[in-house]
Amino acid sequence: MTGLHLALWFVPVSHRPTIEAGRERLEYLDRNGVTPYSFGIKVNFRYSET
User: Is 0.70 surpassed by the pTM of this model?
Assistant: First the structure.
């Protein structure tokens, strides 16, 4: 990893992501860069259910 320590993503209301899910999103962000699937605080994505 390049030292990333934060990944954001949209989750359904009342869903509590696991630590494993967070780790997977962080690794995805590190490998693929910013996408709606996993992003950081400097990017603004709108929520989409599709």
Answer: yes
